[in-house]
Structures are given as C-alpha cells and as structure tokens.
Amino acid sequence: MAKVTVYDMQKNPVSERELSDAVFDTQVRGYLIHDMVRSQMAARRQGTAATKTRSMVAGGGKKPYKQKGTGNARQGSIRAPHYVGGGVTFGPAPRQYGFKLNKKVRRAALCSALSARFQGNEMLVLSEMKLDSISTKSFAQIIRGLEIENALIVIDSSNPEVELSARNLYNVKVLRAEGVNVYDVMKYRNLVMTEGAVEILEGALAQ
Questions:
Q1: Residues near 195 by Cβ (< 8 Å), separated by ≥ 6?
Q2: Among residues 35, 82, 130, 164, which one has the fewest Cβ atoms lying within 10 Å of its Cβ?
Q3: For the domain that residue 175 is a member of, what is the CATH number?
Q4: 122 with 143, same domain?
C-alpha cells in the first residue's frame, strides 16, 4: 500500500500512514475526470435563457389590414416574427443542461483525481486542522507555513473556525469530506487533507 507522511499544522512530520491504493494510487483516467468535470459544469448552468414566441408577445389578434386591395403583401398578424416587436422563431427555451453519469463512473473519476494529486506529490496530509477563533490572518499564516499558495483543504467534520476563516482567501477553499468533488480537486493545485478526511474518503470509495 502507498504511504504518506502526516504533518502537523507547522509542517513538522508527526507520523506515517498507509493509503488505500484503490482510492489514492489507482490508474489516473483522464477521460473520466474530463467527463465528470463536464457533468458538474453542465449541472451548474441555470438554463434560464428564453425568448417570447409569437403566442407570447403583445399585439392584436386580428389582421392588420384586409387581405386584398391594398397593394401590400398579405399579413395575418403583427405578432409574426418578421414584424418589429414580433415573436422570435426558434429562440432559446428554458432547459436542463445536466447529464447523468453512472455511480461507478463518478466514483472512478474521483479516485482518479485524488490519485493524480497523490502521484504528482501535490497532496499533503495533516494530523488536524483547527483554529482557536475565526481569523483570516491566522489561517493565511498557516497556509504560508505549509508552503502552499493554491489549495483545496478537506476537513473531516464541521469546523466553523476553519471554514469561516478561509472564506476571504481567493486561492483556498475548505470542504468537508462528504463534499469532495472532481472539479474542486482538479481546480486547485494542491490537496490538503486531515487524517480524518482521508479515513472518510477511503471508507466511502474503497471497494
């Protein structure tokens, strides 16, 4: 099994632990990561773009002028698409852009993303992550001490002090283990996890 050094918040090594090969040291399948990111981004689209058809725009329901005798082309309604203020033909309509990926595909994609970070030496495991109070300044100092600038930090449980302290740091995001996803793992250059978060992910993803 793969092994990783566990550090404290000052980046002093405190222990060593084994990692599940099925989760953190599996084959990195780029096409699965690509499909999962596409799925996540598509699901985030609002899909609210819309235009009014000729049945929706304001306007009279009768003919603008009689059929014959005016010398003009015959017209049936001022709501027709070729009139200014008329309805739009083949315009966008509200829709859902998301598409389904099978559960096994989603799991394999997340394992590939985690493995990519581990195999690229871009993953750091901490014994714990905690603060005495909510302080962006203190949290930023911890991040600098860990020698990382762009990171996804995964914690094992609710921790308001850490979560709120990281809110205003544009290059850092804090997630609980149950919220880990492929998009965020790949978006941030480094992955920082607590030991508890590693255990939760191994329990959820290991076969």
A1: 6, 17, 125, 126, 127, 128, 156
A2: 82
A3: 3.40.1370.10
A4: yes
Shared domain check, 179 and 86: no
Pull the structure tokens for residue 44.
Answer: 């985030």
- The reported pLDDT for the residue numbered 1 is 77
Question: Whole-prediction pTM value?
Answer: 0.85
What is the three-class DSSP state of 1? coil
pLDDT 10s digits, 143-155: 999 999 899 999 9
Residue 122, pLDDT score: 94
3-state SS of 85-150 is: CCCCCCCCCCCCCCCCCCHHHHHHHHHHHHHHHHHCCCEEEECCCCCCCCCHHHHHHHHHHCCCCC
Q: Which domain holds residue 118?
A: 2-44+100-205
d(CA 159, CA 174): 10
Work out the number of other CB atoms within 10 angstroms of the CB of residue 105.
15
Give the pLDDT score at 149: 86
pLDDT of residue 178: 94
Please identify which residue in the block is written with the tokens 């009689």: 66
pLDDT at residue 207 greater than cutoff 70: no
Nearest in space to 181 (alpha carbons), one of 31, 18, 39? 39
| 37 lies in the same domain as 55 | no
Same domain assignment for residues 145 and 55: no
